[in-house]
Design goal:
- The protein has 201 residues and is mainly beta.
- It has 2 domains: 55 residues, no CATH class; 120 residues, no CATH class.
- The protein is built from 1 helix and 16 strands.
- A 4-stranded antiparallel β-sheet has the order 1-2-3-4, with no helix packed on it.
- The N and C termini lie far apart (73 Å).
- This is WG containing repeat-containing protein.
- It holds the Pfam family WG_beta_rep.
Length: 201
């Protein structure tokens, strides 16, 4: 009997020692390696496997659509190759960049669009401006503006120019990609004639 009482007391102490980490979390996602995204209100943060908040709640994460095995799509921030997409509103346009697993900005938001990293690379879209003349009446340069796609490394280094410059048809929305990874170090690039070129890099 005495032994039974001791066991019951130990079990009660074990239950009491169970600690609640967060209150009122709106969403908790599966772990991505050693961290998981959690949502509170309109902001997301990341916890480690000890339940410690390792990246504070913030509102600049870019959400990725993740389909489940049941066909239900959830949207939440993800880390790929130790990088997570963020966005920043500058002059009414969103620019995309990346943070690391400590929440530090490692690639400044400068891209009109960006993919998550995959096998060590991401595709990004930049604006290029060329001076094509000068307006004597207005005393201004005549500028041609195009968008171009590049492959970058997790450090933000340009690995390859994808040779598909074009006009930005919807300047208020992030431009769509005309390139896609089809295998590690292999990319397909859609050209103006709607045909595809394949590059290995």
């Amino acid at each position: 009997m005495k032994r039974f009482i001791i066991i019951v007391i130990c079990l009660q102490l074990h239950v009491v020692s169970f600690a609640q980490i967060f209150n009122d979390i709106d969403e908790a996602t599966p772990f991505q390696g050693d961290i998981a995204a959690v949502k509170k209100g309109n902001q997301w943060g990341f916890i480690d496997k000890n339940g410690t908040l390792v990246i504070d709640f913030r509102s600049d994460f870019v959400l990725t659509d993740i389909p489940s095995s049941k066909g239900i799509i959830s949207s939440y921030p993800v880390f790929k190759n130790k990088r997570c997409l963020i966005k920043k509103l500058i002059d009414k346009t969103y620019y995309f960049g990346f943070i690391d697993k400590k929440g530090n900005v490692v690639i400044e938001p400068m891209y009109l669009n960006a993919t998550n990293f995959e096998n060590g690379y991401a595709i990004v879209i930049l604006t290029s401006k060329d001076i094509i003349g000068y307006n004597e009446v207005l005393k201004k340069n005549i500028v041609s503006s195009k968008i171009e796609e590049f492959i970058i490394s997790p450090k933000g280094e340009i690995i390859k120019y994808l040779e598909n410059p074009r006009n930005n048809d919807s300047p208020k929305k992030p431009p769509v990609f005309y390139s896609k990874f089809i295998a590690p170090n292999v990319i397909a690039v859609k050209k103006k004639d709607q045909k595809w070129d394949i590059y290995k890099f």
